[in-house]
Amino acid sequence: MKKTIAVIGAGGAMGSALSQSLAASGHHILLMDKDSEKCHKTYDAIFSELPNANIEILNCIHEGSWEADVIIPAVAYEVQEEVADYIKDVVTGKIVISIINPLNEDKSKLLTSPFSSAAEELQKYLPYSKVVKAFNTIFPSDFKNQMNADCFLAGDDEIAVATVSALIKESGMVPQLAGNLSTSRTLESMMLILIQLCRRNNTPESGCFKIHFSKS
Amino acid sequence: MLGIESYSHKSLIINKKILSKIFLGNHQIINLENKVFFAFLRLREVYLPDNSFTMFDLLFENIERKIEITEEDKAFCKTLFIPKKLRKKQYLLQAGDISEYVAFVTKGLLRSYSVDDKGEEHIIQFAPEDWWITDMNSFLTCEEAIYNIDALEDTEILLLDKQSQDKLFEHIPKFERYFRLLIQGSFVAMHKRLLSTITNTAEEKYMRMLKTYPDLVQRVPQHMIASFLGIKPETISRIRKKQASSS
Ligand SMILES: NC(=O)c1ccc[n+]([C@@H]2O[C@H](COP(=O)([O-])OP(=O)(O)OC[C@H]3O[C@@H](n4cnc5c(N)ncnc54)[C@H](OP(=O)(O)O)[C@@H]3O)[C@@H](O)[C@H]2O)c1
């Protein structure tokens, strides 16, 4: 059955790209952002490309997370704890996708300790939810380029991981299960490297990981 | 600088109007810094009555009518039940899928029904507030559900999946008793209903429904009551007319 997915920060770069991609797969998307004008922009952009999209704007992240089956906080790392605290009582048993990379302002290093990750911190704030790391190694601009990118994911709950794998596949990417939730430490570092590589090559932030397994 | 924490009670009330304007309107009309934004959200929680603080109250009352539970038991329940909202007409379960949950209704109204070869709907159960609903066969056996469950009104539910139910039984064994009593009650009701279906006249069925569930008869469209009783909507109209003229 199609899922109801709450995107918190749907007016942002990542939030809007993800919302569009998930709406294209037919899911019911609840768009939420602090800035409703940005949210309306996302809404209009999705509708102009997908006139049948099942999307709507909600004003309250608590209401939206209550209604949703899957919740995606697409906000900066600095806000993660506050968002989690605010939705805590309505996300028990639900899948929360962690796309957040805990980068400092000039994106030169991670803000988390080497023994933790943004995803593991989120799981601590939401102990009764099923946090799955995914989409954090994908640039927003690449959701539209169907280039068969590998999309890594990590999580502790088998059913939740399978559900997120299906969402990734529907988005035209290849799900690569990296391991349990603590593998997020590696996945979050990988995005740091990708950003550094873009800078070194003087290209805008784009490009993706693709693993080439040898045949034999 | 907005010193929200230090607002006096009086000034909070004055500001209530402004806050609801911001958060109840169709659009949020201003863009706030994050700290202020969350402070506003919290104020909204204090002043707007429709929030989740009472989400579990009805469930715990229902449980306490059958078994005694402690505050600790309640806290454990809160880690297992999935809070969920459904819009009117939205499905909780579609025939052919596996029924993953038992659902307790805290607000609103659900129904389960099957659809026959001619596309006609046959209502099996209504579940208003304080009721449990699922496709029990599918939930217990993991076979495909034969019933659809959808919302007749905007609805709030608490869901319990099989894994969580097992966890609950393991940690608090008296919940086995609670669910046994629930199933026992539903078994008795089902048999009464079966007997009524094969022995009672349409009028007797309708009068029995009116007597047992007067609120539901008010709340649900007549054709659905007819579908639930297995009689024609016209028959209900006729019975109602007859009642009106004889009283
Ligand atoms: N961009 C990327 O390449 C990329 C790739 C993978 C993962 N990510 C991760 O995705 C997350 C979002 O990144 P982004 O680039 O999309 O940032 P962004 O464009 O700044 O989007 C974040 C959005 O969230 C909104 N927001 C902030 N606080 C909020 C709240 N309390 N409630 C609701 N909405 C709120 C922001 O509004 P305001 O602007 O008004 O504050 C903004 O519209 C980050 O954690 C990032 O690490 C980004």
Question: What are the defining features of this structure?
Answer:
heterodimer, A: 216 residues, alpha/beta, Rossmann fold, 8-stranded mixed sheet, 18% strand, globular, B: 247 residues, alpha+beta, Jelly Rolls, 4-stranded antiparallel sheet, 11 helices, 17% strand, disordered N terminus, binds NADP nicotinamide-adenine-dinucleotide phosphate
Short description:
Chain A is α/β, with parallel strands linked by helices.
Structure commentary:
The complex is a heterodimer of chains A (216) and B (247). Chain A has 216 residues and is of the alpha/beta class. Chain A has a single domain (4-200), classed as Rossmann fold (3-Layer(aba) Sandwich), CATH 3.40.50.720. Helix content of chain A is 37%, strand content 18%. Chain A is built from seven helices and eight strands; from the N terminus they run βαβαβαβαβαββαβα. An eight-stranded mixed beta sheet of chain A has the order 3-2-1-4-5-6-7-8, sandwiched between helices. In chain A, helix 1 packs parallel to helix 2 and helix 4 runs parallel beside helix 5 (118-125). The N and C termini of chain A lie far apart (38 Å). In chain A, 49% of the residues are buried. The model of chain A has no long low-confidence stretch (mean pLDDT 96). Chain B has 247 residues and is an alpha+beta fold. Chain B is built from eleven helices and eight strands. Chain B has three domains: 6-47, no CATH class; 52-188, Jelly Rolls (Sandwich); 200-246. In chain B, the strands form two sheets. Chain B has a four-stranded antiparallel beta sheet with strand order 1-8-3-6. Chain B starts with 8 loop residues before the first helix and ends with a helix. Classes of the chains: A alpha/beta (216), B alpha+beta (247). The A-B interface holds A 1, 34-37, 40, 57, 59-63, 66-67, 69, 78-79, 82, 86, 89-90, 92-94, 127-128 and B 23-29, 31-32, 34, 37-38, 41, 44-45, 51-52, 55, 78-87, 91, 94, 97, 156, 159, 161, 164. Bound molecules: NADP nicotinamide-adenine-dinucleotide phosphate. NADP nicotinamide-adenine-dinucleotide phosphate sits between chains A (8-9, 11-15, 32-35, 38, 61, 74-77, 79, 83, 99-101, 103, 136, 139-140, 205) and B (31, 34, 37).
